[in-house]
C-alpha cells in the first residue's frame, strides 16, 4: 500500500537547498519515487513553510530504503543545511 510523505520547507539557505534538489532529483527518479506536489506558491495555515512537497512511495519499506540510501543521505546534508523541514508520513486509505 502506498506511503506518502508530506513535507514543508522553510528556507535558511536557498543555495544549499537548490544543491539538494540538483543532487536528489536523479535519485528520486532512479528509485521510482513519485513527486506528486512541489509548490513554492502553496498557502499554509497553522504551519510555517515556503514550499510544500508531496511524495509517494510504493510502501513503507520502499520509503525506508530510499531515505537510507548513501547517495540520498549525502544529498540530504544540503537539504538540512538549506531548510527547516517538517514531514508527515501516512499510508493510502484502502479503497472502500
From TrEMBL:
Q: Which domain of life is it from?
A: Bacteria
- InterPro entries for the chain: Dimeric_a/b-barrel, DUF1330
Residue intervals of the DUF1330 domain: 3-90
Question: What is the protein name stated in its UniProt record?
Answer: DUF1330 domain-containing protein
Its organism's taxonomic lineage begins at: Bacteria, Pseudomonadati, Pseudomonadota, Alphaproteobacteria, Maricaulales
Amino acid at each position: 500500500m502506498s506511503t506518502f510523505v508530506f513535507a514543508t520547507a522553510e528556507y535558511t539557505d536557498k543555495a544549499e537547498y537548490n544543491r539538494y534538489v540538483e543532487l536528489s532529483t536523479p535519485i528520486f527518479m532512479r528509485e521510482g519515487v513519485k513527486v506528486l506536489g512541489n509548490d513554492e506558491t502553496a498557502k499554509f495555515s497553522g504551519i510555517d513553510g515556503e514550499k510544500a512537497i508531496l511524495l509517494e512511495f510504493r510502501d513503507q519499506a520502499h520509503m525506508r530504503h530510499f531515505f537510507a540510501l548513501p547517495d540520498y543521505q549525502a544529498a540530504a546534508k544540503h537539504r538540512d543545511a538549506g531548510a527547516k523541514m517538517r514531514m508527515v508520513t501516512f499510508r493510502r486509505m484502502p479503497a472502500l
